[in-house]
Amino acid sequence: MRGLVVGAAIIAGGRLLAAQRAAPPELAGGWELPGGKVEPGETDEEALTRECREELGIGVIVGRRIGDDWPLHNGYVMHVWTATIAKGEPEALEHSDLRWLSEAELFDVPWLPGDLPVLEAVRAHLKES
Ligand SMILES: Nc1nc2c([nH]c(=O)n2[C@H]2C[C@H](O)[C@@H](COP(=O)(O)OP(=O)(O)OP(=O)(O)O)O2)c(=O)[nH]1
Known about the structure:
By secondary structure, the protein is of the alpha+beta class. The chain has helices at 44-56, 116-128; strands spanning 4-12, 15-20, 31-32, 35-37, 59-71, 77-87, 97-101. Keywords: DNA damage, DNA repair, DNA replication, Hydrolase, Magnesium, Metal-binding, Mutator protein.
């Protein structure tokens, strides 16, 4: 089975939370959706809430799935879900930096290549929010 990664499109006030990877060296500096690998026995929602707690120190409410299986560079596929913050303020506990991007700023950061089509789909959700 291919590995599964979950990504959170955390939206607040019409902006999307983007996170800059600190590691590994070949990905460091690239921007991504908070998230990570789904562990055996976990649902997408459980993995997303765990990763948001570990990486950002926040509690989230998982919302709607965006798109289907998004292929990534490493043979993994990513499931993307909208999320809203239920508790706390995001802190870069494992990332180098965080930014809240408006729709106009969405492509101002160098996203990991696999995220570019995802961002096009996220854009529609930003418009609605
Ligand atoms: N979280 C996340 N990972 C992404 C995105 N886009 C993308 O290509 N990836 C890739 C980067 C990594 O190779 C992989 C996610 O692995 P990860 O290192 O974040 O997973 P993890 O937190 O579970 O960490 P680890 O236990 O493997 O160290 O998916 C994205 O938007 N969000």
